[in-house]
Backbone:
C-alpha cells in the first residue's frame, strides 16, 4: 500500500498560470512540483502546484504574486 503524504496544493484557472508559478519557483529555489489535480477536488486547469504541508508558509510570496492565477488552496493527503 502506498503511504499518503500531507500536501498543500495550489490550483489554477489556466495552464499558463500553473507554468508561470513553476517557472517562478524554480528560479527562486522554492521546493514543489506540478502534479495533476487529484480527483478529490475540481479545478479549471488540470494542474496543481504541490508542496509538503509543513512548507506551505513558504508559498505566501507566490500566493500574493500570482493571486489572479490561483483558483484554490487545498490541504490533502496524496
Residues:
Amino acid at each position: 500500500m502506498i503511504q499518503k503524504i500531507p500536501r498543500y496544493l495550489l490550483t489554477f484557472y489556466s495552464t499558463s498560470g500553473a507554468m508561470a508559478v513553476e517557472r517562478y519557483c524554480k528560479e527562486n529555489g522554492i521546493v514543489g512540483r506540478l502534479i495533476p489535480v487529484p480527483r478529490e477536488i475540481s479545478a479549471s486547469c488540470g494542474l496543481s502546484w504541490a508542496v509538503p504541508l509543513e512548507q506551505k508558509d513558504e508559498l505566501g510570496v507566490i500566493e500574493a504574486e500570482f493571486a489572479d492565477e490561483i483558483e484554490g488552496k487545498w490541504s490533502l493527503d496524496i
